Amino acid sequence: MPIASTAIVHPGARVHPSTVVGEYCIIEDDVEIGPNNRLDPYSMVKRYTTLGEGNHLYSGAQLGTDPLDKKFREEDPSA
């Protein structure tokens, strides 16, 4: 799997083997990244995020976050 040695990928994340993960990227728990994606250095994919096929996250990009709902209390919002 082409994941840079400095990238931090949570063990609960599912990253397709054809996805390239650049230097210092962070991929949190409950993330699914499909085939043929490219994450440039310093990009971040936060929990509860799913990426399909063929996306390109440029350096410094951040996808996903906790919902802005004030009642959110760490439960999975997709459930």
What does this structure look like?
With 79 residues, the protein is mostly beta strands. It is built from no helices and ten strands. The strands form three sheets. A four-stranded parallel β-sheet has the order 1-4-7-10, with no helix packed on it. It has a three-stranded parallel β-sheet with strand order 2-5-8, with no helix packed on it.
Helix content class: under 10%
Radius of gyration: 12 Å
Global morphology: globular
Quote the beta fraction: 25-35%
Note the main sheet.
4 strands, parallel
Total helix count? 0
Task: Provide a compact summary of the structure.
By secondary structure, the protein is an all-beta fold. The protein is 0% helix and 25% strand. The protein starts with 7 loop residues before the first strand and ends in a 16-residue tail after the last strand.
Question: What layout of secondary structure does this protein have?
Answer:
Elements: E1 8-9, E2 14-15, E3 20-21, E4 26-27, E5 32-33, E6 38-39, E7 44-45, E8 50-51, E9 56-57, E10 62-63
Tags for this entry?
single chain, three-stranded parallel sheet, four-stranded parallel sheet, mainly beta, 79 residues
